[in-house]
Backbone:
């Protein structure tokens, strides 16, 4: 019976992508050795080379077995060059390592193409393959010191630079340079620049002599033999130089970045065996408890009441342990996101001609897989921002008394129910003056305004705002920080920025551990229950009416310990009937997000509890001020408040009636459909 090999494809793709990640990491390690020594030639560690080779060999074998011929063919060429590195026929200098990194990108692109059916960039891949093949000839010259290298052979696209300088008597032999140029133009992409430096003055010109020369660029599937054939009739009547150049195709960094976003989201999860063992043990305990309770209920008597209570308590403990075990299965180390950054920093620093050292701490900190999947893009953007806008060029750093190599430090750690990620650089810091000028230029601020540093920082999060003078593929399109903050907010997180001129900038991202379960505080407004995320709550206070002020044209403010903050009445916001509109009869919950505070007026506090998060937008619609919903123990639906959004509403002075008068309260509208 024939075996359906497609059932193994997903495993092959996952293992191959992991192998490529290993290859990329080891190649960067290899290059770092050169950077540390300050030389271009790398002292190759045999174990590193063996690790890279084994990964390429596994990918070649797997792709051949499963019929992915394009992947196998490319991997075969790459494997041959790696083998030449292992036995010393090829030297692993920076140029070679850079080409091998591009090869990893191409291989990854081919594998993802095989997995998704999306077309890979064949031109770029062919260009890299041609350069890989030319390495073989370089290796031969290294060991044999024989004939000059013959680069860029038949397969794939080649780039040739040709200097064609006819002797003056060329016309007298019956040859015409125009015919030669026309034949060359038929071979591929053709560009010719005429050289008129030997052209005499008009009175001295002889129309039977040739004074012109040409510098020609030819790109296409052309061999040296083909070019020699074109010049065969004039080879004795001209000076001819034919030089192979590296194919200028899709930049490796562009491939890397495109692939980074393509393979960021996988729908499978690899779980360590200890986590699965813990889950099985907990399920075993749960089954034992369930059996004990079943026996008690078979012949129940009041003499067994104490055992019944103990069994229920045991069931409660087992359920909580089961919940924690299941949640742990979804937790992955942040290294899944951080591992992409060394390559990004490597490619960008080369492109921007900067020296940057990336330091990572806390990559073993665990967070929910869903959060990691959605965190990757904001993280890439923040690091790119630090590298492009923060870190100065070496000359500028030395002039400023800094080491010519800049530092970008990533630090992750758990704090309470959150994971905190800091992206810190030692660059020039935010240009407050320039941000202010741009804001005035765009009409966001008046020229006479005197904004605080915090208010200026807030400007960089405005949609479309950018201080870049020129648009490039790195920055300048004004698409960035607002998207980053929106993405982080959609995860229930916050981002803060601190910056000091000449000393650098720090982005601090706070994220919840998971998007599935939330530690919340239940509050009551009228007959409705709302959930506030516990991490956003500072305190709750009994309202003192004399501490409330109502400045003209502004929302209500509450003064607490010499600090004034906007006050939001939730019953007005969500158009529900409160127990009392007298503020002294209720409580004020002080919340904080993005460095701002607000007071939320509620009728009462009900207590802390963990709730399962349900998407409101999926079951109903997106409502400002509410992030999600949950189902309480009694079966009723409760809304989970979007504290960040509420604070934003409060500080904008628009905290009035999110639900139009006459509409049903959200809880009533959602209850029949949420499950």
Residues:
């Amino acid at each position: 019976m024939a075996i359906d090999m497609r059932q193994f494809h997903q495993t092959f793709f996952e293992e191959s992508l992991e192998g490529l990640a290993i290859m990329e990491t080891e190649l960067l390690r290899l290059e770092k050795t050169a950077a540390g020594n300050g030389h271009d030639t790398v002292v190759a560690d045999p174990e590193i080379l063996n690790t890279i080779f084994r990964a390429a060999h596994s990918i070649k074998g797997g792709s051949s077995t499963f019929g992915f011929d394009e992947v196998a063919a490319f991997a075969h060429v790459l494997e041959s060059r790696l083998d030449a590195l292992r036995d010393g026929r090829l030297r692993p200098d920076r140029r070679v390592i850079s080409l091998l990194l591009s090869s990893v990108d191409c291989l990854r692109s081919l594998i993802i193409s095989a997995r998704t059916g999306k077309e890979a960039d064949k031109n770029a891949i062919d260009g890299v393959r041609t350069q890989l093949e030319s390495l073989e000839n370089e290796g031969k010259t290294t060991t044999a010191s024989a004939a000059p290298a013959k680069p860029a052979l038949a397969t794939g696209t080649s780039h040739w630079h040709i200097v064609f300088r006819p002797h003056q008597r060329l016309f007298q032999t019956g040859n015409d340079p125009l015919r030669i140029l026309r034949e060359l133009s038929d071979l591929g992409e053709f560009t010719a620049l005429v050289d008129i430096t030997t052209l005499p003055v008009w009175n001295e010109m002889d129309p039977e002599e040739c004074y012109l020369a040409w510098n020609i660029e030819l790109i296409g599937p052309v061999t040296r033999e083909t070019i020699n054939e074109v010049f065969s009739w004039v080879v004795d009547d001209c000076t001819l130089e034919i030089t192979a150049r590296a194919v200028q195709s899709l930049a490796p960094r562009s491939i890397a970045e495109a692939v980074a976003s393509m393979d960021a989201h996988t729908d499978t999860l690899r779980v360590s065996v200890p986590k699965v063992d813990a889950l099985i043990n907990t399920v075993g305990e749960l089954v034992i408890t369930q059996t004990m309770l079943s026996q008690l209920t078979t012949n129940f008597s009041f003499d067994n009441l104490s055992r019944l209570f103990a069994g229920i308590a045991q069931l409660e403990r087992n359920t909580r342990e089961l919940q924690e075990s299941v949640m742990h299965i979804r937790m992955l180390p942040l290294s899944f996101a951080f591992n992409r950054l060394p390559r990004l920093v490597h490619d960008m620093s080369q492109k921007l001609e900067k020296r940057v050292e990336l330091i990572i701490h806390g990559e073993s900190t665990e967070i929910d897989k869903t959060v990691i999947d959605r965190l990757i893009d904001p993280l890439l953007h923040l690091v790119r921002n630090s590298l492009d806008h923060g870190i100065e060029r070496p000359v500028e750093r030395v002039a400023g008394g800094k080491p010519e190599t800049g530092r970008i430090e990533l630090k992750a750690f758990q704090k309470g129910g959150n994971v905190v990620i800091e992206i810190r650089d030692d660059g020039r810091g935010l240009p407050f003056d320039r941000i202010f000028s741009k804001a005035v230029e765009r009409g966001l601020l008046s020229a006479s305004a005197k904004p605080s540093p915090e208010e200026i920082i807030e400007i960089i999060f405005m949609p479309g705002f950018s201080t870049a003078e020129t648009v490039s593929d790195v920055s300048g399109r004004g698409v960035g920080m607002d998207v980053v903050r929106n993405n982080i907010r959609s995860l229930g997180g916050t981002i803060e920025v601190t910056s000091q001129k000449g000393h650098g900038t720090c982005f601090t991202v706070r994220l919840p551990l998971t998007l599935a379960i939330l530690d919340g505080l239940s509050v009551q407004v009228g007959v409705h229950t709302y959930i506030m995320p516990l991490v956003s709550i500072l305190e709750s206070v009994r309202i003192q009416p004399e501490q409330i002020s109502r400045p003209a044209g502004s929302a209500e403010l509450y003064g607490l310990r010499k600090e004034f903050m906007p006050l939001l009445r939730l019953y007005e916001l969500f158009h529900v009937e409160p127990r009392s509109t007298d503020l002294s009869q209720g409580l004020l919950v002080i919340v904080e997000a993005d460095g701002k505070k607000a007071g939320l007026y509620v009728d009462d506090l009900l207590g802390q509890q963990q709730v399962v998060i349900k998407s409101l937008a999926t079951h109903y619609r997106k409502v400002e001020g509410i992030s999600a919903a949950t189902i309480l123990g009694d079966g009723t639906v409760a809304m989970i408040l979007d504290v960040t959004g509420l604070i934003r509403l409060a500080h904008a002075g628009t905290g009035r009636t999110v639900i139009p008068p006459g509409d049903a309260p959200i809880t009533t509208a959602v209850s029949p459909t949420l499950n």
The chain is about 40% helix and 20% strand.
